[in-house]
């Protein structure tokens, strides 16, 4: 197989990104995000490999300086943004602090990850060095976006629920800011989900009364401070469904940057309305259906196809959603199946469906951890192998997406259409006719036979020569706009017009 490479000339036009301080949703749309779980990404001294047993619940030693030292690894895949773990000071208990979702002081940083200056140095390093798809060696004027994970639903305490010392919680240093104690027990009862506490009596996450005017304005002040102090370009927002929607409008607007929220639920009519309160949400419903489809060769495509269509019709703007297939809360894809061909298919789908693609550290290394905490493997165990097959595929998908964005002004805002599906194959069109990408994925896996599927009318103009940029096979679109896709060994296909390829380096053109 020839691995396509991308030339400097072809890529130069991709990088007309604005480099203003606060990045808007429109500026985020063309980005792609690498999710860094800070404690498990890289230690400050990259010659060491701290011990970090599977499922370990404590600090393993990843730092912000460690991230700086490994930016080449991320840059090599073509990402244009990173999302890092929450940065604020945590409770003392390391088993609750290493992930960052147990804050005690919003105005101090988690010194296990470094100093405030280290975090500023990370922001500066991202801004001063361009990250770009493909293999271009230098491109100084592109900044890489920094997205930080934030929590506004709750704070945390080392004390038992009934005996919390509120005075050490900053800035919410009084019981009055919090809801009375009750536990989230019933996810079908939205009042219970919003007013009650996560955690338990021994490990409580005191739940803020976010309807209070003072709590809202304290959060607005804090998020403005955080974004400006650390030059943050976007926020990943935790536990969104545990707070009433109107709070998020205020928070999102105070932050002045793109917000993407975690509404961890598979129900489209439940998840989509949160996009009325914030710029984007993580595409959890699609995630669940994609995982079921791609991880099981006997599954049929119906639920997956219907979910993509439902998201498209019910979410305010799917092009601002976060598209993902792994994160630090869910079992890895390779936990369900070790089949690398299936992993390729779901990765291609994740990178090219509507929305801002997000790849979680370790996905590119085909890590296979089960659910939290086993999905938080130390990345250094991989030796940051840049020849890993999914590392290469991620690089290719960032590159073809960036090429499509550069060649067509409405590529990003064009809503994905499913133009063909049968039991095991699904074809997606994104973009106007002569400039679109046709993505064809399947769930047949490594054992798949070779076969051909003729898809009537996929969207390309009749007679156009298109190239599957992954296999470099040429196909001519027939007189009816149809295309005969030759499946080889279950691999995904990404068709792009031939006339847009000369000079790019793809497939030797
Ligand atoms: C929903 O939860 C609230 C808060 O826990 C509780 O007061 C209420 O009784 C619950 N409603 C139902 C129908 O269970
Ligand atoms: C939250 O604060 C509001 C405004 O002060 C108050 O009216 C309400 O009772 C509080 N809610 C709860 C559940 O404590
Ligand atoms: C499928 O096609 C590929 C490429 O033409 C070929 O290398 C492979 O042997 C074929 N596999 C089978 C099972 O026929
Ligand atoms: C693909 O099509 C183009 C345009 O017709 C042609 O120049 C090129 O040689 C073809 N490549 C292959 C591998 O068939």
From TrEMBL:
Site residues (Transition state stabilizer), renumbered to this chain: 329
GO molecular-function terms, A-Z: alpha-amylase activity; calcium ion binding
CDD domains, per the entry: AmyAc_euk_AmyA
Pfam families: A_amylase_dom_C (PF09260), Alpha-amylase (PF00128)
Cofactor: Ca(2+)
Binding site for Ca(2+) 2: 238, 262
Binding site for substrate: 154, 236, 266, 329, 376
Gene3D superfamilies hit by this protein: Glycosidases, Golgi alpha-mannosidase II
Name of the protein described by the UniProt record: alpha-amylase
Organism annotation: Phialocephala subalpina
């Amino acid at each position: 197989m020839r691995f396509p490479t991308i030339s400097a000339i072809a890529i130069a036009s991709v990088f007309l990104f604005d480099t203003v301080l606060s990045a808007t949703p429109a500026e985020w749309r063309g980005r792609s995000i690498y999710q860094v779980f800070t404690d498990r990404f890289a230690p400050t001294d990259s010659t060491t490999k701290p011990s970090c047993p599977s499922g370990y619940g404590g600090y393993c030693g990843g730092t912000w300086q460690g991230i700086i030292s490994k930016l080449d690894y991320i840059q090599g895949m073509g990402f244009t943004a990173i999302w890092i773990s929450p940065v604020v000071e945590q409770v003392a208990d390391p088993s609750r602090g290493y992930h960052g979702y147990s804050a005690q002081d919003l105005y101090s940083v988690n010194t296990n990850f470094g100093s405030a200056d280290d975090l500023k140095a990370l922001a500066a390093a991202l801004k001063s060095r361009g990250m770009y798809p493909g293999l271009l060696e230098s491109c100084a004027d592109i900044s890489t976006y920094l997205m930080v994970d934030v929590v506004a639903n709750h704070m945390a305490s080392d004390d038992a629920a009934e005996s919390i010392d509120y005075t050490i919680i900053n800035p919410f240093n009084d019981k009055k800011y919090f809801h009375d104690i009750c536990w989230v027990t019933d996810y079908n009862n939205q009042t219970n989900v919003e007013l009650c506490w996560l955690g338990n009596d021994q490990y409580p996450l005191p739940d803020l009364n976010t309807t209070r005017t003072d709590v809202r304005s304290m959060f607005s002040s804090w998020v403005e401070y955080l974004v400006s102090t650390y030059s943050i370009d976007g926020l990943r927002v935790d536990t969104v469904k545990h707070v009433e929607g109107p709070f998020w409008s205020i928070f999102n607007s105070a932050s002045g940057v793109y917000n993407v929220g975690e509404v961890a639920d598979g129900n489209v009519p439940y998840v989509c309305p949160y996009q009325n309160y914030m710029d984007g949400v993580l595409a959890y419903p699609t995630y669940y259906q994609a995982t079921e489809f791609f991880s099981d060769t006997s599954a049929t495509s119906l639920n997956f196809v219907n979910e993509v269509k439902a998201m498209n019709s019910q979410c305010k703007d799917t092009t601002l959603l976060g598209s993902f297939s792994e994160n630090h809360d869910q079992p890895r894809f390779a936990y369900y199946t070790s089949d690398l061909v299936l992993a390729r298919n779901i990765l291609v789908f994740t990178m090219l469906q509507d929305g801002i693609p997000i790849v979680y550290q370790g996905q590119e290394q085909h890590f296979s951890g089960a659910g939290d905490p086993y999905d938080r493997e130390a990345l250094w165990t991989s030796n940051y192998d840049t020849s890993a097959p999914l590392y290469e595929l991620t690089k290719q998908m960032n590159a073809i997406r960036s090429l499509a964005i550069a060649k067509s002004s409405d590529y990003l805002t064009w809503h994905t259409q499913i133009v063909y599906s049968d039991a095991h194959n699904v074809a997606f069109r994104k973009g106007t006719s002569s400039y679109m990408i046709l993505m064809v994925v399947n769930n047949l896996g490594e054992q798949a036979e070779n076969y051909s599927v003729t898809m009537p009318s996929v969207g390309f103009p009749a007679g156009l020569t298109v190239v599957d940029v992954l296999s470099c096979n040429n196909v001519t679109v027939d007189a009816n706009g149809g295309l005969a896709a030759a499946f080889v060994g279950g691999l995904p296909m990404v068709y792009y017009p031939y006339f847009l390829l000369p000079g790019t380096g793809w497939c030797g053109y």
